[in-house]
């Protein structure tokens, strides 16, 4: 029960955080910072995998012992496992969105640089004309 409570309090707010679209208006440097923050979250998420497995193992053990409140334990365990799967999917989806945005902004930066390189000689010619 305590492990489940600790896990549930850790997951609180994580789904909303993973669904933020803060990257849509970010600059390239902000995207890089968001990616670093996301990588740290992924490490934290991986560290919590063990806790979810422990909760599932305890629920299984209680089932095998014919614990009187097994249906309640199973329901809570199922909810935790479903939420865990959802967190994993949202984490992957956010990583893909961050990486896609980073690539897009890097391409835009390259295009600006290319434009500046080509515009400089033209500007010099215009000033001389």
TrEMBL record:
UniProt keyword terms in alphabetical order: Actin-binding, Coiled coil, Repeat
Q: Where does the record place a coiled coil?
A: 31-65
Q: Which GO terms describe its molecular function?
A: actin binding
InterPro entries from the UniProt entry: Spectrin/alpha-actinin, Spectrin_repeat
Q: What is the official name of this protein in its record?
A: Uncharacterized protein
């Amino acid at each position: 029960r305590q492990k489940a409570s600790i896990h549930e309090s850790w997951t609180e707010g994580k789904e909303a955080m993973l669904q933020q679209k803060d990257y849509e208006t970010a600059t390239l440097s902000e995207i890089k910072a968001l990616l670093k923050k996301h990588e740290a979250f992924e490490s934290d998420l991986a560290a919590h995998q063990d806790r979810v497995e422990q909760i599932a193992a305890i629920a299984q053990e209680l089932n095998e012992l014919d614990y009187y409140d097994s249906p309640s334990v199973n329901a809570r365990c199922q909810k935790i496992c479903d939420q865990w799967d959802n967190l994993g999917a949202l984490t992957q989806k956010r990583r893909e969105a961050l990486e896609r945005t980073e690539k897009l902004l890097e391409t835009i930066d390259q295009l600006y640089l290319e434009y500046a390189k080509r515009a400089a000689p033209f500007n010099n010619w215009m000033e001389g004309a």
